[in-house]
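It is worth pausing here to work through a concrete case rather than discussing structure prediction in the abstract. The textbook approach is simple: state the sequence, then state the predicted structure, then interpret. We follow exactly that order.
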Amino acid sequence: MTQELSPATQAVLNAVTLKRYDVPYYACPNSIDQIKSDVAAALRAAADQVAPEPDDIDEGSLSLAAIRNRCKVRDELLAIAAELEGRDG
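Step two, the predicted structure:
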């Protein structure tokens, strides 16, 4: 039985498989596990670069709203990565 994927995760996988193979993600059964692993790694790296965890310096230079927004973006990217790896958040 295949895992039901969220719309966000489906969109990410489709973007990759349509670009690379010109087919939707569910049409790549032989390579989908490797694709999921690769995309999860890329999303984790993106989260670290674009929305790193706040630190003490951020608390002095960023507004609380900016820190919350960064955390939300980071959490959403990491949630997709976890879903791709078959983990809960």
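Step three, interpretation. Helices lie at 7-21, 32-50, 56-61, 64-84. The two ends are 20 Å apart (CA to CA).
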